[in-house]
Amino acid sequence: MSRVAIVTGGTRGIGEAISIMLKEKGYQVAANYGGNDERAQEFSKRTGIPVYKWDVSDYKACEEGVAKVKEDLGPVEILVNNAGITRDGTLHRMDQESWQKVIDTDLGSCFNMCRAVIEDMRAAKFGRVVNIGSINGQAGQYGQVNYAAAKSGIHGFTKAMAQEGAAQGITVNAIAPGYIDTDMVAAVPPQVLEKIVAKIPVGRLGKASEIARGVCFLVADDGGFITGSTLSINGGQHMY
Ligand code: CAA
């Protein structure tokens, strides 16, 4: 049987590309989504990938969602924590809700989802976790104290969990995408985005499929020695 993978936020944007590429590689994919039913149904019809609706910022909903996927497809061996939101704004104007929502959705979700799958991964002595961070978690970004903090937290979470999983056959890695051509980036004011793209040495936004390639590399069965690392896929915008 092929391995079972959950991709959170797996019906749109970067997550959609990841779900599709994993399916093409032969994995059994469950694509989670949070809100847009119409888009999820269209995605499922087009790709044949089953979709599962739950809120990744809700601990209990993650537990129940993972249990349903397990019932339908089998124990989860691959988890891609991709779901994320932005609520951009400068700190002096940001309300507490915009802070909390981004922290809970982008970072809290990693705990909720990893907690829901870890016991089965430990029992199987196999697991692959990929957490989608961000260039803005590495370098910071004007107008994103909430998002930068959450994504930066993902990078720390990844390294700690990688240490715990190492002896159990569980690898945990992060990908830090730069600016990728998705709805999220399209929401950046055009005059701001223009300045950002001017700083990308490759000279363009990335494609979602260019992140999906990285995920496929990290989750492969022969990737057992790659853990605790961050793969930066950003067109050369941030090198460190
Ligand atoms: N660095 C320095 N100054 C900046 C700046 C920057 N990056 N961006 C804006 N400013 C300055 C502007 O020049 C302006 O200054 P002046 O008034 O002197 O001209 C001032 O800040 C106010 O700018 P705005 O008019 O844009 O202010 P606003 O309050 O309307 O909006 C903002 C502020 C919401 C932060 C807006 O600038 C914005 O949306 N920025 C984009 C933030 C961003 O890059 N988000 C990434 C989203 S995609 C993503 O997150 C995916 C990923 O992982 C990469």
Automatic annotation (TrEMBL):
SUPFAM superfamilies from the xrefs?
NAD(P)-binding Rossmann-fold domains
Tell me where on the tree of life, at the top rank, the source sits. Bacteria
Short name of one Pfam family? adh_short_C2
InterPro entries tied to this protein: Acetoacetyl-CoA_reductase, KR_dom, NAD(P)-bd_dom_sf, Sc_DH/Rdtase_CS, SDR, SDR_fam
Looking at the UniProt entry, the stretches that span the membrane are none
Q: Where is coiled-coil annotated?
A: none
Task: Report domain Ketoreductase positions.
Answer: 3-178
Q: Which UniProt keywords apply?
A: Oxidoreductase
Q: Which family does it belong to?
A: Belongs to the short-chain dehydrogenases/reductases (SDR) family.
Protein name, UniProt field:
Beta-ketoacyl-ACP reductase
Species, as recorded = Sneathiella chinensis
